[in-house]
Amino acid sequence: MRYLPHTQEEIKEMLSLCSAKDIKDLFATIPENCKRDKELSLPGPLSELELFSHIEELVKDTKTTKQVKSFIGAGNYEHYIPSIIPFLLQRSEFFTAYTPYQPEISQGTLQAIFEYQTLICNLLSMEVSNASMYDGATALAEAIFMAIRIKRNKNVVAISKTIHPNYRDVLKTYFETRDLEVIELGFNKDGKTDLSKLDNVENLCAIAVQSPNFFGCIEDLKLISKRAKELDALFICSFTEPLCYGLFRPPGEFGADICCGEGQSLGLSQAFGGPSLGIFTSKMKYVRNLPGRLVGMTKDRDGKRGFVLTLSTREQHIRREKATSNICSNQGLCALAAAMYLAVMGEAGIKEVASQCYHKTEYLKKGLSGAGFSPVFNSTTFNEFVVDFKGKGDEIFNKLKQKDIILGLSIKKFYPELNDPYLITVTETKKKQDLDTLIREVSSC
Q1: Per-domain residue ranges of the chain
Q2: What pTM was computed for the model?
Q3: In this predicted model, what pLDDT tens digit does every residue of 81-115 receive, in sequence order?
Q4: Which terminus in the chain has less CB density within 10 A, N or C?
Q5: Mean pLDDT throughout 68-74?
Q6: Residue 160 forms beta bridges with which residues?
Q7: Using CA atoms, how far apart are residues 186 and 47, in angstroms rounded to an integer?
Q8: CATH class of 69-82+347-443
Q9: Spatial strand order in the sheet of 204-210
Q10: Measured distance CA(196)–CA(198) in Å, rounded
């Protein structure tokens, strides 16, 4: 967005409309001890030529995945993005668009969102999708609140410990104002969710798991779905890597009631962690409890196809405090990028990417095992897995970092019961040469 400076006359006019003498009056409600009492120490202005030269100098101190081989994933993944996607996204009709509050005049925006919803439902084998949410963590929180609305008098929620730790922290924040009993489900020796705590549980509202889970393990969704039905609870399946479902059966085929998660892998760059995309789907019978926006297809009075926002009465700009969600959508551009990615790649392309992720991960597993560092969990994984470096993890990490290789993510602080665990991630962007280099360097440590 361009910077549009205001003249002194414009500032004076705006202040008069606010009944303020000067700009300081606008901040009168802020306590004095919270205000900065000194001017910011900023450098003087630069010409355009000087500015670009300054930025180029700063870039020299920054390394990206072009210079460094990073094996960190944990919810934010490096994938190849076809060049057609950023090219199309930067077209002015997309780049500046926002879902309008008189939406029917923006048929292009609504059609794009409708296509996104359709493609997401196809990927996850779910019946209905909303127009996306803020990110995977808040989508999971909204999924649990949706389950509470559906089950009404039940206030017990079972949450797997194999769900991304950051997601679980977000859930704790959401739950602070709710009268909920949370049961934390541990994990078995195979890295999958342990359901034994569910025995004799009453008033269970929902069971929430993640697959692939934080360890990269594929959960037994069939078993979890069956257990949820036995307890008359909703089955919520979350994810951080949707490309997995190009190779493995999606949650919808196992009877998931709500499926939600992070969509960053679908055409969005890592971008230092955001913005990202919250995917949210459910069974059609729960559509009136679905948070966020939903675009539907209809016909006008002349019989022509048209697109509209439907069930908008759930939103905060209409129902206010009675709305079904406090985050109605994410940046529409992120959802559009995901739709473009799924459309460009197609079923065959998604399957190929998923297949490369899986097989390259298995290759690295075997290589590290040969170097004396085997995976912690003997389960089927997708594109990441946990390795026990037997007390040498930090030493190996630091040595490899000097050679522009990032070993992975230490998850000891999240799971202290594990010895020296590192979560290692492999995507289609890694060549066999990169994997062989990592194996060789680890072997030499």
Answers
A1: 69-82+347-443, 84-341
A2: 0.86
A3: 999 999 998 888 787 655 555 666 778 888 989 99
A4: N
A5: 94
A6: 185
A7: 58
A8: alpha beta
A9: 128-129, 278-282, 258-262, 234-239, 204-210, 156-160, 181-185
A10: 5
